[in-house]
């Protein structure tokens, strides 16, 4: 498993752990649905990941993983969470959420390519708006900027401008979705 996939998997498991802690800290009724087997498996995965990766992590990563181990290890079963003082659980929840934010920061950064795709999509939307506004003479200054695309779009004689814009917008949207999904899979 690649490093990025391992971090994402760990982040997903940590999210589940934080969710369980939240249920107990906030006395949510879902805490009664936490199965001991699932809990033990989750705790074991988190501890194994933290111990295994702490040895090769940089100093910040080491501290994060040691903190994870310190937060997870004492809570040996769901009953331990159920018996704990509410203030202690709320403090644990705050620490878990801090780790969650750190993990989301590590896995949630957008690549330059993603930003370029988003900028391209925004530019296409703005161009479409300019086309509509320029065509309807609502915004006369836009008419000069958009004459060449209007000539191109006008070549499809049977369609209205709105239908053409809808088609262009749909094609661009599909392309953006495909590009973002493939970009997300690679990172």
Give short descriptive properties of this protein:
187 residues, mainly alpha, 2 domains, 9 helices, 0% strand, elongated
Tell me what the structure shows:
The protein is an all-alpha fold. The protein folds into two domains: 3-107; 112-186, no CATH class. It is built from nine helices and no strands. The chain is elongated, with a radius of gyration of 26 Å. The two termini are 13 Å apart.
How do the helices and strands line up, and which of them pair or pack?
Blueprint: H1 3-25, H2 36-54, H3 59-72, H4 78-83, H5 86-107, H6 112-135, H7 140-145, H8 147-154, H9 161-186
Mean pLDDT: 78
Shape: elongated
How many helices in DSSP terms? 9
The total number of structural domains is 2
Query: Quick one: how many beta strands?
Result: 0
Main sheet attributes: strand count, strand direction, barrel closure: none
How helix-rich are the residues, as a percent range? over 70%
Approximately how much beta-strand content do the residues carry? under 5%
Outline of this structure?
The chain has 187 residues and is mainly alpha-helical.
């Amino acid at each position: 498993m690649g490093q990025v996939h391992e971090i994402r998997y760990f982040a997903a498991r940590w999210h589940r752990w934080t969710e369980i802690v939240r249920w107990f800290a906030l006395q949510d009724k879902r805490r009664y649905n936490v199965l001991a087997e699932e809990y033990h498996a989750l705790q074991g995965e988190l501890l194994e990941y933290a111990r295994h990766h702490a040895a090769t992590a940089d100093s910040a990563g080491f501290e994060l993983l040691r903190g994870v181990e310190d937060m997870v290890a004492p809570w040996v079963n769901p009953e331990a969470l159920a018996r704990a003082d509410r203030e202690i659980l709320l403090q644990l929840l705050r620490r878990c959420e801090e780790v969650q934010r750190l993990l989301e920061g590590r896995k949630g950064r957008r690549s330059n390519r993603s930003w370029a795709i988003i900028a391209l999509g925004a530019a296409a939307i703005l161009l479409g708006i300019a086309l509509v506004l320029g065509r309807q003479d609502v915004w006369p200054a836009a008419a000069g900027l958009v004459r060449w695309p209007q000539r191109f779009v006008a070549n499809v004689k049977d369609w209205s401008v709105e239908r053409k814009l809808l088609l262009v917008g749909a094609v661009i949207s599909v392309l953006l979705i495909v590009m973002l999904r493939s970009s997300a899979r690679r990172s």
